[in-house]
TrEMBL record:
The keyword GTP-binding does not apply. This is Glycoside hydrolase family 5 protein. Residues 436-516 form the Glycoside hydrolase family 5 C-terminal domain. Keywords: Glycosidase, Hydrolase, Signal. One of its GO terms (molecular function) is hydrolase activity, hydrolyzing O-glycosyl compounds. Belongs to the glycosyl hydrolase 5 (cellulase A) family. Residues 59-409 form the Glycoside hydrolase family domain. Residues 1-46 form the signal peptide. One of its GO terms (biological process) is lipid catabolic process. It comes from the Bacteria. InterPro entries: GH (IPR017853), GH5_C (IPR041036), Glyco_hydro_5 (IPR001547), Glyco_hydro_5_CS (IPR018087), Glyco_hydro_b (IPR013780), Glycosphingolipid_Hydrolases (IPR052066).
């Protein structure tokens, strides 16, 4: 939730009110407090990810979803990102992306109450098709920052003007931008939205109905994998325990129920509140029940009435398609500090906290874990490559996917610092580190993903009802020639054009392993 440097912002904001040194000091204090009170003893074990549920495809394979967030113009008036078809092609070729978190805004979809802009939805569908042509899954992300542009003099994105009720309270955009969340007008806009004031229940109703409309529009689009219900929810005057459990969870449940009336298949991505949780604190989000489970259970009960025996428990869990889409912004690096010395130690503390808290939450919620945003680091700062490698390794270790924030090369002066690809589709400094092998689909449950220098290992165990091969993407930067393969299973095929190695499970074998080295 801590934002990018001012240089990356398109907004005009007043002079910084907090110095970088003061921010770093405050953050360091926060981290020290967090680490001394909440840090578990020892580092997280490599098995931390075991027991996490997985996002699966139509063939039952585990999808390890890795790619980028769209940004930039998608935050602006048009609500559409800067990309062209060729950028999507370059992303797939150079980064191997198999997912995009595609930024949408409520204001562009429902410009006036109950009236949806179908032309805008068509424009989105046109871009979704570019991803479909590249075999990249799309997660539609209903984005918001600081409620929307009408809460604080244009300093945000998300809600339409008609849904922004500030009661005339004052507002001054702040630097860093996240402090704008605390301005009186912004707090009031959220309080009305969540009906904390008891005066505007219609706002949440409209949001739910808007999602139902969007889901109906994309239900049959095979590229759309799922719906991210709200970016980085903020509770206004209610936070943590008084927001996530009592307000946010039932709200997600309402949207999920509405979506399931028009779409029973796609995945629903729910986010914890951003404040604190993005930096590693725990979440008290409650479990969102997927109505498709009830439908499946009802069907089974019917079958059981005809036969004898049970089996309900076998069926109920695999049918739920709710994903915990947490964000990760280790505070120190995101506000401009390097990844060295004390700062590095503190940020590593956040890695441990985040890993511990988010895997625990995912297990509690019975949901797969996906990093909907991982915040990049300014590559002019020391240790940026190490930081990038460390979060990539954490994701490998947990066998979870991620969407990097972001693909935005337009921010002045920063095209070589944050975005992995420039406008021509060439890998930038961070892009060169991020272009590393990963198994985009696994024919079973992945038990290990491990990238070394010039070598890559994946292990997995079979699971019932899975068909199709395990597919591993190998970047040309790491594996320039035909890769050398050592595998437990006999059948594999190398596709040099798409840089994908496919491996089919040998029949009867339950555990599988493949190690790839440079030829
Ligand atoms: O990086 C974005 C920054 O340039 C913008 O000023 C800011 C407000 O629109 O949003 C930043 O992106 C944030 C994203 O929308 C939500 N998660 C945290 C991102 C980084 O701060």
């Amino acid at each position: 939730m801590f934002g990018r440097s001012l240089a990356q912002r398109s907004l005009t904001v007043p002079r910084p009110v907090v110095t970088t040194a003061a921010r770093r000091l405050a953050l360091a204090a926060l981290l020290v407090a967090a680490c001394t009170t909440v840090l578990p003893t020892g580092t997280a074990s490599a098995d931390q990810g075991d027991g996490l549920r997985q996002i699966t495809d139509g063939q039952g394979r585990t999808l390890v979803l890795r790619g980028l967030n769209t940004s930039s113009d998608a935050k602006g008036a048009s609500g559409l990102p800067w990309i062209e078809r060729r950028n999507v092609v370059a992303e797939r070729q150079n980064l191997g992306s198999n997912v995009v978190r595609y930024v949408l805004q409520w204001k562009n979809i429902e410009p006036s109450p109950g009236r949806y802009d179908e032309r805008h939805l068509d424009e989105i569908a046109r871009r979704v098709a570019w991803y479909r042509q590249q075999g990249i899954h799309v997660v539609l992300d209903m984005h918001q920052d600081i409620y929307g542009p009408y809460a604080c003099k244009g300093a945000g994105d998300g809600a339409p003007a008609w849904a922004t009720i500030t009661d005339g309270l004052p507002c001054t955009p702040q630097d860093p931008w996240v402090l704008t969340y605390l301005q009186p007008a912004v707090l009031r806009a959220y309080d009305h939205f969540w009906n904390n004031t008891g005066k505007h229940p219609e706002l949440m109703q409209r949001y739910v109905a808007m999602w139902k409309h969007v889901a109906a529009r994309f239900a049959k689009d095979p590229a759309v994998l799922g719906y991210d219900l709200m970016n980085e929810p903020f509770g206004g005057s209610k936070q943590f325990g008084s927001f996530e459990g009592p307000v946010l969870t039932p709200f997600y449940q309402r949207i999920t129920n509405a979506i399931r009336q028009v779409d029973r298949e796609k995945w629903v991505f729910v986010e914890p509140q951003a404040l604190g949780v993005n930096e590693g604190f725990g979440t008290s989000l409650g479990q969102v029940r997927d109505p498709r489970v009830r439908a499946a259970a009802a069907k089974l009960l019917q079958q059981n009435a005809q036969r004898s025996g049970t089996g309900l428990t076998r069926l109920s869990d695999p049918s739920s398609r709710i994903v915990l889409a947490a964000h990760f912004y280790p505070g120190g690096v995101d506000i401009g500090g390097g990844y060295t010395g004390v700062m590095k130690a503190l940020v590593q503390g956040e890695f441990v906290l985040w890993r511990q808290n988010m895997t625990a939450a995912a297990k509690r919620l019975n949901a797969p874990l996906w990093v909907g945003e991982i915040g990049g680091m300014d590559f002019s700062q020391p240790g940026a490559a190490d930081f990038t490698r460390d979060w990539l390794s954490m994701a490998d270790d947990l066998r979870v996917g991620w969407a990097y924030w972001s693909n935005d090369p337009s921010a002045k002066g920063s095209s070589e610092t944050y975005a992995p690809l420039d406008r021509e589709g060439t890998l930038t400094q961070v892009g060169k580190v991020m272009a590393r092998p990963f198994p985009r689909a696994v024919a079973g449950v992945p038990t290990k993903i491990s990238a070394g220098s010039g070598t890559f290992t994946v292990t997995w165990r079979s699971s019932r009802g899975v068909s199709g091969p395990t597919e591993i993407w190998l970047p040309a930067t790491v594996f320039p020639g035909t890769p050398k393969v050592k595998a437990t299973d006999r059948t594999h095929r190398w596709d040099p054009a798409n840089r994908i190695l496919s491996v089919w499970n040998d029949q009867g074998r339950t555990t599988h392993s493949i190690t790839i080295t440079r030829s």
